Amino acid sequence: MNAPSSLRSPSARLYQPSVDVAPFVRAFMLRDTRQCALQGEQLLNRFPASAHCVMTWFLEGEAELLSDTGGQQGLVLSGCVISGCQTQPVVSRNRGDTHGFMAMFYPDAFQSLFGADLAALQNKFVDAHAVLPARGRELADAVFAAASHSARQVLVEDCIREHAQRHKLPAWLRLRRMGSRISLGMAASLLGIGPRQLQRLALRELGTSLQTLNRLRRGERSFLAAQRRHLAGQPHDWAEHALDCDYADQSHLTRDCKAQTGRTPAQLARDVMREEADWVYRLEFADEFTDDDHPPPARSA
């Protein structure tokens, strides 16, 4: 008789929010490594720099921050954690099996929803209960208590809808829809304030300067364009790609990619398909939300 085996492949999925809350949430993300027996570098999680504010629920397990992000190297991440704008790549290591649910908020929407000072969250990971108002703390607890991922999504979206009925998103939404080409002068004009005041406002409500925000958005757009070509099996010309994504040239693209991911475009393309730690770079939006709160039972080999 064969020995029973409970090993399975780690899972990671990306889901779009409902249409009416899409101005607030970029995506929901799931990660489950339970019963996968990951070891060594397989326990790592490599994330690119990002402009988003992320609420991460460690439903099971915990991770350790390896990057010297905001002087927090060695910080143990557990419970419900909020991360602000990350201006550099981040690496963490799971301390055994983990099961997580993440909501990726646009920074201006997160600030409008919870009133957080995003300047204090730049390159930081903090306990949600330490920075959120009562409404946010109640949401954090309710998501933990929910019986499924779909129920968790409903809780987050209902919280947003309740807020959206009473408040309008700030003017940053208009600028966000204009993409990464907006200049400081143009943004100041649209918001009706001076450039210096705009920079202070951006740091508080976006978590970074407008220049850095534009750079991060351009990097995300560049990666998604490259990912689409790769998945379609199309050849890739990095020089042409650089110009299409508003870089001055291929060298500019390479420098920016290395600053945001820690690797050149060619290195990233090589690693993404073979390194478990790069799971976040392989994500595509799933068509249907699938609940898997409980790992499958052990099966005979």
TrEMBL record:
Locate the HTH araC/xylS-type domain: which residues? Answer: 167-271
Which positions make up the signal peptide? none
Which species does this protein come from?
Answer: Massilia aerilata
Query: In its UniProt entry, what is this protein called?
Result: Helix-turn-helix domain-containing protein
Report the domain of life of the source organism.
Bacteria
Q: Which InterPro entries is this protein grouped with?
A: DUF6597, HTH_AraC
Coiled-coil ranges per UniProt: none
Taxonomic lineage from the root? Bacteria, Pseudomonadati, Pseudomonadota, Betaproteobacteria, Burkholderiales
